[in-house]
Predict the 3D structure of the following.
Amino acid sequence: MKRRVDRSGIVLIAGAVIAGALILALALPAARAQTPGFALEPVANGFTRPLYLTHAGDGSGRLFVVEQGGAIWVLQDGQRLEAPFLDVSDRISPEALGTGYTERGLLGLAFHPDYAENGVFFIDYTDRNGSSVIARYTVSAEDPDRADPASEQQLLVVEQPYANHNGGHLAFGPDGYLYVAMGDGGSGGDPQNNAQNLGTLLGAILRLDVSAEDGYAIPDDNPFASTDNARPEIWAWGLRNPWRFSFDRETGDLYIADVGQNEWEEVNFQPADSPGGENYGWRPYEGSQIYSGEQPASEPVMPIAEYSHSGTGGCSITGGYVYRGEAIPALAGTYFYGDWCSGTIWSARQADGGAWDVQAALESGLSISSFGEDEAGELYVIDYDSGEISRFIPAG
């Protein structure tokens, strides 16, 4: 989550990585500032500081909307149900219940791949002590539109040294494991150098086996499962505040949007056949640019796309999804992401030769807190300020 700044014009930098080296840095011309083929259509509103939207994968067609203040709402056929699916406002950081800016609260939601059979889902929230909590819940036995609030099992509690950079996103990978985004612990400039420290869970993407009824296990093939003085939960590291990541539902490739410090926002890419362990460079690097000048703990992988705050009006990246729906066939295989401050939506697509084509696709005018994907692969975008949810539709 991110602060609003003044808006301006667009300058875009794209990059491609082979063997950890940045091989392309291209300032895209202004003539490419709009990508034809899609528009946004409002489909629901009335939410208070919404942060995420997802589906349960159960064939119901329902959408689930996460509010920062602790409520998860069901959208059925475009209508919000009267009672929330779950309300954990009594568990989360008090400041998330107010109206001022905070990066704490209810931040993530992921439904188990077998949710239709087991009714299990997971949330990520900051508790009253400011710690990050990953918790398991089950749906109510009496009502499929209500969770059982007494079913909480806390899998993981991570102390946060500062109030910002909590990460918070959850998603199941194609391998059936739960992936968890953890920010670097906050403040500014990663003062504890957490992102380059394998001994902490901060500044990393975690990979957990949550198939058991209690707790979690470490997958045997996690990259640091047998590394001394390293947390075995870590899948990828060197991240500042990964605000939304996603798996391409067709290829299994992983896209990670990482919020920058002062100037550079970035998209990182991990191919589906990766064994994990990538170091994405923070804090020695902000994007592909030198930040601290320190030697990274291992060879960093540079981003596939980045953009500067200067001249863009941008301030903080919001990760999205690769489009795999049927409504707009021309967008198939294109990754979309946006900026919290400028409202710009970008597209990124990899050419056969490996280079990434990145374009400023749409000036939405929204405070983009998240994108969402329904069960059919259609995409949505969330406006934090107005509480409105819009859907990608073909351009008229």
